[in-house]
Design goal:
- 42% of the residues lie in helices and 13% in strands.
- By secondary structure, the protein is α/β, with parallel strands linked by helices.
- The model is unreliable at 324-329 (pLDDT under 50).
- The structure holds pyridoxal-5'-phosphate (PLP).
Length: 385
C-alpha cells in the first residue's frame, strides 16, 4: 500500500543533505565546543557558522541567537525567562487563546507564580486584532506573545501591526512563536521590531530536538537552565553539535527555496481545497481563506469525528492529523477551533492536512480518493450524524 504523508506541520523528514552534513559530528568531529583543544575548537567554529546562518536569515546578529532543544524550550524560555527577569517592572503578560501548548502551559504556570495573564480572543478566522492587543496593554505589561502562524488552522497573524501597537503603547517585549512559519514566510526581526522569536528545526527538514530562540540585544532573560556558561550564560548544557549543524544546513536550503516552495505547495493545497469543497459541500475550511500558511488545509467534516477520520485514513495509507499533533490522542476538542467560535461538537470533527516539499499531485489525488471512501463509510456509522 502507498504511504502518503500529509502531516508536515507535525514534523518533516530530515533532508538527506542535512543528515550527511550532520554525520561526521557523531564520530570523527565529536569535540565539545567548550573544550579549548583543536577538536573542540573545530566544532565550536561550526556551531558559530550555524548561528550566523540563522541570524542572517532572520535579520539578526549572531550573538542574538541561542540554540535550544526546539520550539517548546524556546517558547518556555521566552515566557518564563522574560517574566522572571522583569518581575520588578510588572506582572502582566498578554498572549492569545490560540497559541501552541508550549506557550499556553508556560503562561498557566506563570499565573500560578503570581503573574496575571490576558488571553486575547481571535475572530472566526483565527486573527488576533491589533486593537485587542492595544486594549489589553497596561503599564505593568512586560511581555506580549502572539504566534506568527497557527499550527492547526494555519492563520497568519498581523504580527507587523501588532509589533507597532506594542512598541507605540508600552515597554513590553514582543515574542512570536514562528515555529510553523519560518519554513514558508519571510521574517525580519529588525524590520518588524520583534524582541524574541522561537523556531524549531524539525518543522523545516532539519533534525528533531534542536531549535533556536532569537533574543534581541538588551532583552534580559532569566536563564532557567543552570550549569555551564554556554550560549553566553543564557542556556547551560553541552551543545547538540550535530543538531545545530543540521539546523543551520536546513535553514540554508529553506532560504534558497522558500519562495518557490511557497508557490508550489500553495497551488497543490488550493487544488486540494477546491476538490474537497466540490466533493463535500458541507465541509468547512477552518482558518482564514487567504491569510493562511500555504501548506495548510484544515477541514471540519460535520458528523465525522476527527480521530476516527485520522485512523481510517491511516488504514488507507494517508497520514493526517486532527488538530495539532501534540493534542491528538486526547479526546478534548481543539482549543484553537473553540477560540474560532466552533461548538465543541464541530471542533471534534476536524482534520488537518498539511503538505510539504515532497508532496505531489498524484499524492493529493490519492488522498482525495481515500477521503471519499473513508468519509462515506464513516458517515454511515457515525453517532454524530
Ligand atoms: N510551537 C508551534 C506553533 C508548534 O507547532 C510546535 C510543534 O508542533 C511547537 C511550538 C513545539 O515545537 P517542538 O516540537 O520543537 O518542541
Amino acid at each position: 500500500m502507498k504511504q502518503i504523508y500529509l502531516d508536515y506541520a507535525a514534523t518533516t523528514p530530515t533532508r538527506k543533505e542535512v543528515l550527511e552534513e550532520m554525520l561526521p559530528f557523531f564520530r570523527e568531529k565529536f569535540g565539545n565546543p567548550s573544550s579549548i583543544h583543536q577538536l573542540g575548537q573545530e566544532t565550536r567554529a561550526l556551531v558559530e557558522e550555524s548561528r550566523e546562518k540563522v541570524a542572517k536569515a532572520l535579520g539578526a546578529n549572531p550573538e542574538e541567537i541561542v540554540f535550544t532543544s526546539g520550539g517548546t524550550e524556546s517558547d518556555n524560555m521566552a515566557l518564563k525567562g522574560v517574566a522572571l527577569s522583569r518581575r520588578d517592572e510588572g506582572n502582566h503578560i498578554i498572549t492569545t487563546l490560540i497559541e501552541h501548548h508550549a506557550v499556553l502551559e508556560a503562561a498557566i504556570f506563570l499565573e500560578k507564580e503570581g503573574f496575571e495573564v490576558t488571553y486575547l480572543p481571535v475572530d472566526k478566522y483565527g486573527i488576533v486584532h491589533p486593537d485587542e492587543v492595544k486594549k489589553a496593554l497596561r503599564k505593568e505589561t512586560i511581555l506580549v506573545s502572539v504566534m506568527h502562524a497557527n499550527n492547526e488552522v494555519g492563520t497568519i497573524e498581523p504580527i507587523e501591526e501588532i509589533a507597532q501597537v506594542v512598541k507605540e503603547h508600552s515597554d513590553a517585549y514582543l515574542h512570536t512563536d514562528a515555529v510553523q512559519s519560518v519554513g514558508y514566510l519571510d521574517i525580519d526581526v529588525e524590520k518588524i521590531s520583534i524582541d524574541l522569536l522561537s523556531l524549531s528545526s524539525h518543522k523545516f527538514y532539519g533534525p528533531k530536538g534542536v531549535g533556536a530562540i532569537y533574543i534581541r540585544k538588551g532583552v534580559r532573560i532569566f536563564p532557567f537552565m543552570h550549569g555551564g556558561a554556554q550560549e553566553n550564560n543564557r542556556r547551560a548544557g553541552t551543545h547538540n553539535v550535530p543538531g545545530i549543524v543540521g539546523l543551520g544546513k536546513a535553514f540554508e536550503f529553506i532560504i534558497q527555496e522558500k519562495a518557490e516552495l511557497r508557490e508550489r505547495v500553495k497551488s497543490l493545497r488550493d487544488f486540494f481545497i477546491k476538490k474537497v469543497k466540490e466533493e463535500f459541500p458541507d465541509a468547512e475550511l477552518a482558518g482564514h481563506p487567504e491569510k493562511r500558511l500555504p501548506n495548510n488545509a484544515n477541514f471540519i467534516f460535520p458528523g465525522v469525528e476527527g480521530e476516527s477520520l485520522v485512523l481510517a485514513m491511516d488504514l488507507e495509507g494517508v497520514c493526517i492529523s486532527s488538530g495539532s499533533a501534540c493534542s491528538s490522542g486526547a479526546t478534548k476538542p481543539s482549543h484553537v477551533l473553540l477560540a474560532l467560535g466552533y461548538s465543541p461538537d464541530k471542533a471534534r470533527c476536524c482534520a488537518r492536512f498539511t503538505l510539504g516539499k515532497d508532496t505531489t499531485l498524484d499524492e493529493i489525488e490519492y488522498a482525495m480518493e481515500a477521503l471519499k471512501k473513508v468519509l462515506s463509510k464513516l458517515r454511515q456509522i457515525s453517532p454524530l450524524t
